[in-house]
Amino acid sequence: MRYRPFGPSGATVSAVTLSLGTKSIAKGAEAACELIYSALEAGINSYHLETADPVLAEVIGHALKHIDRKLVYVSLSLGRGDGRQGTSRDFSADGMTESIDRVLGASRLGWVDVVLLDEPADDELPQASLNALKALRATGRVRFLGISGEGSVMDAYVSTGAFDVMATPFHLNSSWQVRSRLRAAREQDMAVFAYGYFPSNLDTEKKASMLEQPVKKGLFGLAKKTGRPKHDPLAGVGTFAFLHRTPNWTAEAICLASGLTDPVTSSILIEANDAERLNTLALIPDRDMPPGLAAQIEMARVAGAGGAAD
Fold first, then answer.
1. Tens digit of pLDDT for each residue in 112-137?
2. What is the mean pLDDT of residues 175-184?
3. Which residues, including other chains, have CB under 8 Å from residue 198's CB and lie 6 or more apart?
4. How far apart are CA 191 and CA 169, in angstroms?
5. How far apart are CA 241 and CA 238, in angstroms?
6. CA distances for 98 relative to 22, 52, 104, 116, angstroms
7. Is residue 304 included in any domain, yes or no?
8. Are 15 and 258 in contact (CB under 8 A)?
9. Tens digit of each residue's pLDDT (9 = 90 or more) over 203-224
10. Which of 102, 111, 220, 230 has the fewest CB atoms within 10 Å, counting from its CB?
11. What CATH number did the domain enclosing 118 receive?
12. Is the residue at 242 inside a domain?
């Protein structure tokens, strides 16, 4: 496992972060603990709780209780409910404080390293709530405040300078707006978590080969793809079809490896509900992409951007 600086804090986190949610505890607490043990053995020291579910918090606390707390990092999403039926978005000062208290009480972790607010709208995050989080940070119950999401409101939150961390979808075909936001976050000395590294429009060869292909108008104004016939040996050239044709690499592995080459990201969130998948993904940071693959990615990105502009 490789490790990266976590913003200006001086800390280092594993290149991948294990994201834990309701699916992680679907097989029971013991199975979830075993999954975390496997992650620790793989060198992963960063864990993300997708909700403030007390059962999930108890599991992570039990799995990490014999580890020096200063050597592991636990982040928590707030605002999307606590995972229990009937709960809803809540960015109130009392609601977020209670969620943090509930997680700390169930986990006995002592503190939450990063609290990530789930893309609050302009009118969802009152100043009183932000003040409450800053007070929790001042007392050491929370170390860093973060913002998570992908909408344009994220630009406003990044520019405020009120947050230490940003989490955002980021993949090899991300738009220039996303890349610009990442640069802005880095300029604010924010640490960056990335997720969504393997988007659904790349998960099959057919979709990857058709993504953003230039479209021209045919007879009577009907749209017509300009790509080669599927049986042509050069079919898919200039697209992301190569993701599914690279020997000894899966498309997901390439997408994850590509994301890890960007120095802006501190860690990429991965999801795994069994040890086999976890160990497969945990090996990716130590693998070097085949020669020429980075160039293929860039060519596909440029071709896609050109097609979208036509």
1. 999 999 999 888 889 999 999 999 99
2. 90
3. 171, 251, 252, 255, 256
4. 14
5. 8
6. 20, 10, 10, 15
7. no
8. no
9. 898 888 876 544 444 555 554 5
10. 220
11. 3.20.20.100
12. no
* 239-284 residue pLDDT tens: 899 999 999 999 999 999 999 988 889 999 999 999 999 999 999 9
Half-sphere exposure of 62 (CA within 13 A, CB side): 14
The token duo for 69 is 């707390």
Q: Identify whether 211 is part of a domain.
A: no
Instruction: Name the band, by pLDDT with cuts 50, 70 and 90, for residue 232.
Output: very low
CA-nearest of 169, 190, 186 to 259 is: 169
In angstroms, the Cα distances linking 105 to 52, 54, 86, 91, 96 are 11, 8, 22, 20, 14
Tokens of 77: 């999403």
> Model pTM?
0.86
Is residue 83 in some structural domain? yes
The pLDDT assigned to 77 comes to 96
User: What single-letter DSSP state applies at residue 287?
Assistant: P
Range of the domain at 36: 3-198+252-289
Q: Please state, in angstroms and as integers, the Cα–Cα distance from residue 37 to each residue in 25, 80, 153, 254, following that order.
A: 14, 27, 37, 26
